[in-house]
Amino acid sequence: MPKIRKAKHRRPAAESVATAIHIGASSVSMMVADRSVDGGLTPIDFLEQPAPVARDIFRLGSVSLATTERVVSIIKGYQKSLAELGLDPYQVTRAAASNILSEASNHEAFMNRIRIACGLKVGTIDDGEMTRLIYLKTRRRLQHLPAMRHHNTLVVHVGPGNTRALLFENGRITRYTSYRMGTHRTREAVEGTHAEGPTLLRVIREHACGNLAQIRFDYSDVTLNGLILIGYEVQSVAAALGKSRTACPLKKLRQFTADAAHMSDVELVKHFHLDYQTAEALLPALEINLAIAETLKLEAVHIPSSEYEHGLLHDLLVSRELTGAFTDDVLRSARILAERYQSDSGHGEHVSHLCAKFFDELADLHQLTRHDALLLQVAAILHEVGTYVSPRAHHKHSEYIILNSEVFGLDRMDVTLVALVARYHRHSGPLLTHPSYASLNTDDRIRVSKLAALLRVADALERTHAQRVSQLEIRREAGKLRLRLPGLADAAVERLALTSKADLFEQVFGLSVVIDEDH
Q1: pLDDT at res. 4
Q2: By C-alpha distance, which of 346, 351, 413 is closest to 378?
Q3: Are residue 308 and residue 202 in the same domain, yes or no?
Q4: Crossing angle of helices 442-461/412-423, nearest 10°?
Q5: Which residues share a beta bridge with 94?
Q6: Domain harbouring 459, CATH code
Q7: Does 4 reside within a domain?
Q8: Helix axes 325-340, 370-382, angle to 10 degrees
Q9: CB within 8 A of 202, min separation 6: which ones?
Q10: Domain carrying residue 149
Q11: Are 157 and 99 in contact (CB under 8 A)?
Q12: At what angle do helices 197-218 and 276-295 cross, to 10 degrees?
């Protein structure tokens, strides 16, 4: 059942337009939006057509040729629509695919086919960015539910392959967990049982029992006041479950799920105006969400009635620009990780503070972004977590721990950059003989070198772990970066530390670092 939705307002000025294409679990969608001076987005066009990507991946282990060509055909149609709007069909702001594509044995061939046929480079949404997208959806939802901003609210996103949970306490995220349990993954796993009706719901519940037990354990120490359920399938039937700003009693969700179990896929399509791929995954979505609510002993849930895909496309265009409260939540997650590995919090925070000072005052020299500033602060907080393993070669242990950890809001590339910057806070600077560093493109290797150079200087000034440098004055002259440390009578320790740590700064920026006497 084709699903094409358009909302044309006017022909936009090309320079103010942002476009996003998303290859999702069961559809391919596109949004064209007009970006205002303040960065706000006003949708101009929205298109969506079904494609059974998730069904192929979880049933066959790969994306079939037929589905691949269908996706190519849909994207070409969207490019034609862009041309009709007077826009360059190959200049798409974001083109992203669901992270379940990484589970397809032919995911690279699939991506290459799109790039060759459509001239479009598509990136995969990884766990870090998916968390950012859920965060954006939640932030909007909490704005509509003022009471939840002052209580413990769990946000659960049951996706096609995985389920993610974000805990908000007083409106701020404090925990994030992920489970290998999803709508399409479950549908294909139970398909061979040929179960129907109530029996099918029981089979779905039994298949999910291990993950449900883990969710119960992960949040057993928290008193939850509210549960928000988001996801493509559950939001597609939200209107039938009640008003957007009103909680849905669990009794109603339970009865709704039981009634849906008695419908065939064809009946679900007709009754709820769904495409067949969504209809196939609807029962697993309903039963998993219901099971989670019952496991957590909640009596009601909140389900946004806004269109999931429409919101996702909007958020794809802004998720990389998040600042403010989001930055605070990322740093809080980094601090939780540092505490887990018993890192010296006072030292990490002070190095982070010094890094921020260097970053801001040398902006014209390094020409990095605010997102890079965030990565530098995270690296500063985490640079000594490796001492948990051993003080010896702890920079290498720090790299390993960070690479194998999650920091809320950071995607895998972000985490890789943070891990490398943390590694290079001491001893050798970046070398192409280091595999993780060598695997980066040239631009990202330069980013790592610049950030590590700043971190090394900041760490040298905090060599004693005693926060001796409370004030810092920076100026540049004649090939030197001159530092003055007001209030510090004897900077001998810091000067000595700089002899081994300021080398990378000079290599990268061409400035030697000198501490002036404080008279």
Answers
A1: 46
A2: 351
A3: yes
A4: 50
A5: 20
A6: 1.10.3210.10
A7: no
A8: 20
A9: 195
A10: 127-319
A11: no
A12: 50
